[in-house]
Design goal:
- By secondary structure, this protein is of the alpha/beta class.
- It has two domains: 15-31 and 248-332, Aspartate Aminotransferase, domain 1; 53-245, Type I PLP-dependent aspartate aminotransferase-like (Major domain) (Aspartate Aminotransferase, domain 2, 3-Layer(aba) Sandwich).
- The chain contains twelve helices and 13 strands.
- α3 runs parallel beside α9 and α10 runs parallel beside α12 (322-332).
- The longest helix has 24 residues, at 247-270.
- The radius of gyration is 20 Å and the shape is globular.
Length: 333
């Protein structure tokens, strides 16, 4: 069995990494290392033809219509689908000549990684004021892992500044589903801005691999060409359209997540863990004892997200049931 310092933590949800660290728990893993909704969208049955045929244009149109309604996309703004928001992150940097990129962080590490891998000069900054001179500015809103948000007026001002210098503002709204009012999508008009949305996190179906990119900029059509025909499966088209249109489930889950998040806060505070941010899907804590807490939970079969570059931080996802919350509470004791 390895020490927590011997095995790198790449992304949440890597239970192979967890077992390398702690072995396989007899009670099974309670994975609290991701920001994925523990309550998955339940209505996932699909017609057999979704597996037996290539994805059909009619199904694609139904998904895109549902996505436009759900994300409140203006009529004059384009939207395209991708096999997960990560796919958009991978392809987007390939559409630009080498340029200067400012990433407002710390945030999801793949932003810096994907732009750097394509030869761009990337700088991570803490404030919007520090992005002056960057051709591309990347903002995560709400931010992962601290939940920081930016107002629509602030982002629109930044988008207009990028438009004036023939640049681009990229906004990752992977966690905006829990608080849709933070989304900039309904405000988009002529600004040079691209918004990325993730389906799997809020709907609890990351294995479906479904994401979207929204912009009035020509970048959407360029992404479509890069992704090629049939970018997502027929099953993803069918389930995605159904889930995005299920307002009853969406409203109920938002309410349940808020309740579960409040319960998690009580458990963390009772364990003297300082909550410094998060969303309704996870909490970020800061503690000098974070490495010890990570080990303690791991030995109890509970995997949380550590940050080697910030050893005093831990991200803990919202447990999906009262039993899971009690298991966490007992382990923290």
């Amino acid at each position: 069995m390895n020490s927590a310092h011997d095995v790198p933590a790449y992304h949440g949800g890597d239970l192979q990494n967890a077992e390398a660290l702690f072995g396989r728990p007899s009670a099974g893993w309670l994975d609290l290392s991701t920001g994925v909704n523990p309550e998955s969208y339940p209505n996932t049955a699909v017609d057999d033809t979704s597996w037996q045929r290539l994805p059909q244009q009619q199904s694609m149109e139904a998904l895109m219509a549902a996505a436009r309604r759900y994300y409140r996309v203006p009529d004059t703004t384009e939207i395209t689908v991708a096999p997960g928001s990560q796919s958009v992150l991978q392809h987007l940097p390939t559409l630009f000549e080498a340029c200067r990129v400012a990433v407002i962080g710390p945030c999801y590490a793949e932003h810096e990684k994907t732009w750097s891998a394509c030869g761009h000069v990337v700088e991570t900054v803490e404030k919007i004021a520090d992005t002056d001179g960057a051709d591309i500015v990347v903002v995560v809103n709400p931010n992962n892992p601290d939940g920081r948000t930016f107002s629509a007026s602030t982002l629109l001002d930044l988008a207009r500044r990028q438009t004036q210098r023939n640049g681009l503002l990229v906004i990752d709204e992977a966690f905006a589903d829990v608080d849709p009012d933070v989304s900039l999508i309904p405000e988009l008009s002529d600004e040079s801005a691209l918004v990325i949305r993730s389906f799997g996190k809020f709907f609890g179906l990351p294995g479906l691999r479904l994401g979207f990119a929204v912009s009035k900029n020509r970048i959407v059509s360029q992404l479509e060409r890069r992704l090629g025909p049939w970018p997502v499966s027929g099953a993803a088209l069918e389930i995605g359209a159904r889930a995005l249109s299920d307002n009853t489930w969406i409203d109920a889950v938002r309410a349940r997540l808020a309740t579960r998040c409040n319960a998690l806060d009580q458990v963390l505070r009772a364990a003297d863990l300082n909550i410094i941010g998060g969303t309704a899907l996870f909490r970020l804590i800061e503690s000098d004892n974070a490495p010890r807490v990570f080990e303690q939970l791991g030995r109890a079969g509970i995997f949380v997200r550590m940050f080697p570059e910030r050893p005093s931080w831990l991200r803990i996802a919202v447990p999906g049931s009262d039993n899971d919350l009690r298991r966490l509470e007992n382990a923290l004791r």
